[in-house]
TrEMBL record:
Residues 132-141, 159-185 have a biased composition (Basic residues). Residues 27-108 form the S1 motif domain. InterPro entries: NA-bd_OB-fold, Ribos_protein_bS1-like, S1_domain. Residues 112-185 are annotated as: Disordered. It comes from Vibrio ishigakensis. GO terms for molecular function: mRNA binding; structural constituent of ribosome. Pfam families: S1. It comes from the Bacteria. SUPFAM superfamilies: Nucleic acid-binding proteins. One of its GO terms (biological process) is translation. SMART domains: S1. This is 3'-to-5' exoribonuclease RNase R.
């Protein structure tokens, strides 16, 4: 129990020191990476300082942002702007609260461009299904590599004939199937 309290105290002191340091940098623009995405915004870890702060969802551009928990991202409904885990961003230090040990950032820029007028995944899937139905889709070709012997010579596998291993697997599967039928009776 005391070790856990010691860890908590160490974390609190570290958070307080980070906030104390950042008080001198209010108004500065810094580079960072989105380290965590939540329904109320995203946390940015500053690249040089390894200090985290929050960009609140209300400080983002005039858009309604939808939180995608599975994709760890915020998606703008009308603009299509996406902020996801790992994106490089530029933030401005907005405020520092020493009592709550919180640092607030404001987004200045992002390297990810908004979605264009391209096709959605669903549209691409529908088009691919139509191509397959018309027979214009690419057929997959089985890749079988030749067997290389220790002396360096190769042997191309014969088409249509099964290898001994394949025959053994099929025979074993048949035997297991027959055993299971016998147990049901």
């Amino acid at each position: 129990m005391t070790e856990r309290r010691a860890d908590d105290a160490t974390r609190e002191v570290a958070d307080w020191l980070k906030c104390e340091y950042m008080q001198d940098h209010v108004g500065e623009e810094l580079d960072g990476v989105i380290a965590n995405v939540t329904a109320f915004g995203f946390f940015v870890r500053l690249s040089d300082l390894h200090i985290d702060g929050l960009v609140h969802i209300s400080s983002l551009a005039n858009d309604y942002y939808r939180y995608d928990a599975i994709g760890q991202r915020l998606v703008g409904e009308s603009s299509g702007q996406i902020y996801r885990l790992g994106d490089q961003v530029k933030v401005k230090v907005l405020s520092v609260n020493l009592n709550d040990k919180q640092i607030d950032f404001e987004l200045v820029g992002s390297q990810r461009a908004p979605r264009g007028k391209g096709k959605t995944a669903k549209q691409r899937l529908v088009e691919e299904a139509k191509k397959q139905a018309r027979g214009k889709g690419k057929k997959a070709k089985a890749m079988v590599e030749p067997t290389v012997r220790p002396d360096g010579s190769t042997e191309q596998p014969k088409k249509g004939k099964k290898s001994k291993a394949q025959k053994a697997r099929k025979s074993k599967a048949r035997a297991n199937k027959n055993k299971s039928r016998g147990k049901k009776k």
